[in-house]
């Protein structure tokens, strides 16, 4: 699996959510609404989710294993840092 495109939409308002991201996989499949969040231990990604009937949020699309999640998160956070550098 290759992530062939990462598009960052920076969130300008104050808060923990810093950006909304879309990724393209193998030039064939797109995942929208991945969020870059500022947590207590630094930045991390949250996969697209929706609120279930019980009030909990459930991921709509997500990696099956931690290695894939780490790969996706690494690429997204690298691109996010590049976008921050361009703005300065």
UniProtKB/TrEMBL annotation:
Keywords (A to Z) from UniProt: Cell cycle, Cell division, Septation
Keyword Cell division: yes
UniProt cross-references to InterPro entries, sorted A to Z: SpoVG (IPR007170), SpoVG_sf (IPR036751)
GO biological process entries: division septum assembly; sporulation resulting in formation of a cellular spore
KW Cell membrane (keyword) present: no
Function summary: Could be involved in septation.
PANTHER family reported for this sequence: SEPTATION PROTEIN SPOVG-RELATED
Family statement drawn from the similarity comment of this UniProt entry: Belongs to the SpoVG family.
Name of the protein this chain belongs to: Putative septation protein SpoVG
Species: Roseburia faecis
């Amino acid at each position: 699996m290759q992530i062939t495109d990462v598009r960052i939409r920076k969130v300008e308002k104050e808060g923990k959510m810093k950006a909304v991201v879309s990724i393209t996989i193998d030039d064939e499949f797109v995942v929208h609404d991945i969020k870059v969040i500022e947590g207590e231990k630094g930045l991390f990604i949250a996969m697209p989710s929706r609120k279930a009937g019980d009030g909990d949020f459930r991921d709509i699309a997500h990696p099956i294993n931690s290695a894939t999640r780490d790969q996706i998160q690494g690429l997204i956070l690298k691109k996010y840092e590049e976008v921050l550098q361009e703005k300065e």
